[in-house]
Amino acid sequence: MTIARTILVKLAAMLAIAGLVSLAALAQEPPAKPDSYQLFDPIASVLQNPRCLNCHQAAAPRQKDTMIPHIQSVIRGADGNGARTLQCAACHQEMNSADGKVPGAKGWHLAPVPMVWEGLTRAQICRQMQDPSRNGNRKTAEEVIEHMKVDPLVLWAWNPGAGRSTPSITHEQFFERLEIWAKSGMPCPDDGPKAEASK
Ligand code: HEC
Ligand code: HEC
User: Is 51:167 a contact under the CB 8 Å cutoff?
Assistant: First the structure.
């Protein structure tokens, strides 16, 4: 082999390695827009399950998997705690009742009006959740997901009592998905045909 040829072979090898390295770098880049579905769908499957939606309602809470109107015509009231004469706390305690029939967790009341998800697509919920003017002034990605990691009302959904169904992924899996989504910049599914289909 001539010297020139040896150099050529070495060069080729170096180029190949450089190519591999840049391929690997590409693979590690944060997922682009098309992956927003993949990133947000598992999260939406929790947000849109009846345990969460029953409380993120406008006029009154709902109940059961069928999301029927709440018994005794319970209403939102001025502050989400019910009518002055029939407050949530009259029935809902800080934990589920012993037989599990009356659900309970600390601070049990309806989500504030700006945080209502009733009638929204998953893409709309996604955007509303990260809008500080509607989400309780939560600004950073960490602040947006923090509530879903620790709030007793959120955790209750995995211990709802009386054989009520729970979200399809565990809270631990939800937690992991939230972290990945937050680190990817909290992308939302587009309001396109696919978003319609995956409502
Ligand atoms: C008169 C008692 C009473 C009052 C007042 C009351 N609740 Fe309830 N609530 C219940 C009972 C009992 C259930 C369980 C119904 C069932 O699952 O059969 C329930 C269920 C629920 C559920 C459904 C849980 C689920 O996912 O199935 C939500 C949400 C809820 N209540 C929210 C509220 C809110 C918010 C208020 C106040 C605005 C309130 N409730 C006031 C008795 C009450
Ligand atoms: C008993 C009623 C109740 C249940 C059940 C409930 N929430 Fe909420 N949610 C609230 C209230 C009240 C707030 C406002 C609390 C605050 O801002 O600190 C809230 C606020 C939030 C927020 C922050 C504001 C926003 O919209 O971005 C998120 C996110 C959220 N809830 C997610 C969930 C998820 C996920 C579940 C189910 C796993 C759930 N909630 C179940 C009552 C409820």
Answer: yes
Q: Which residues contact 69 (CB under 8 A, 6 or more apart)?
A: 60, 62, 63
The best mutation among 88, 115, 153 to test binding of ligand 1, ranked by most ligand atoms within 8 Å of the C-beta, falls on 88
Q: Can you read off the two tokens belonging to residue 61?
A: 């809470």
Backbone angles phi, psi at 115, to 5 degrees: -100, 15
Query: What region, left, alpha or beta, does residue 80 occupy, with left being phi > 0 and alpha being psi -120 to 50 degrees?
Result: left
Asked whether 129 and 135 are in contact (CB, 8 A), the reply is yes
Per-residue pLDDT tens for 85-100? 999 999 999 999 999 9
